[in-house]
Amino acid sequence: MMFPVKQLLSQCFMDRINYTKFLEAVGAEFQARISKAKYYKHPTGVGDALEDIVREYLRQILPERFSVDRGKIFDSEGRLSREFDIIISERFDVVPMMALAGRRIIPVEAVYGVIEVKSRLDLNNYNSFIQAVEQLDEMRRFYKSVDNSLVHSKEEGYSAQDNVPGKLWSGIITFNALQRKTLRALLQKFCEGLVFICIPHRELVLYWPNDTDFIHYPLKLKSLPLAVWLILELTTNNLRSRKLMPDFSRYRSNMLKKIIGETSDKLRLKRNTNKKGQRLKSSK
User: CB within 8 A of 252, min separation 6: which ones?
Assistant: First the structure.
């Protein structure tokens, strides 16, 4: 029995994904969700809906070991960041009790990266985000070595941009932005760790460590799906969890010192107040 050549060849080779069509289909599906959100006519309601859609989308894509939350970041000294729309962290290192009204306060040791989601990107909110990311470098991360032969934790802690536990990266997803020429001028000011700006229906702007400038990719509907694959790469490429464990003992000891210090101050104040009262009574 004779088989057509085309049929025989199809049995010899595996099927292949058409990446262009696949990414365009994913991008169109995401864009449909965004279009629905814009029918909610409220100044802050649309922005909140866009954030929720992006967070849910990332939760569906990223492996379950990662947590995708809205919230703030803090360190063992009590430094607290401003609120970030999206914080991607190690799920097993997030303290469950530090959650309130759908937001989390996450120890800096657990954080991999932060993302800002904006209806429209302009100079003010861009500078505000850059400043918030730069402030993270004031925090210190402390870890315990999984295997002392592999790495030794620093006594003074690691900064946000230290390579040993992995740099904290950042990105922006905006649904409306300045045109490319003006956007390029805006990007003259950027912070260490800023890796991408994604305009889902328009383009993906990348700044890779070995690059000397931002590169614009006019990918249209393919922009966001590729940005998500970039986020997946940035997060899973960090080998910190295999080498280092967060050292949460500093949080407990610093909290205890603070509580004891405040209690001692109150007791001291009470004693001084009692002594003054006794003096006043004796003088009478």
Answer: none
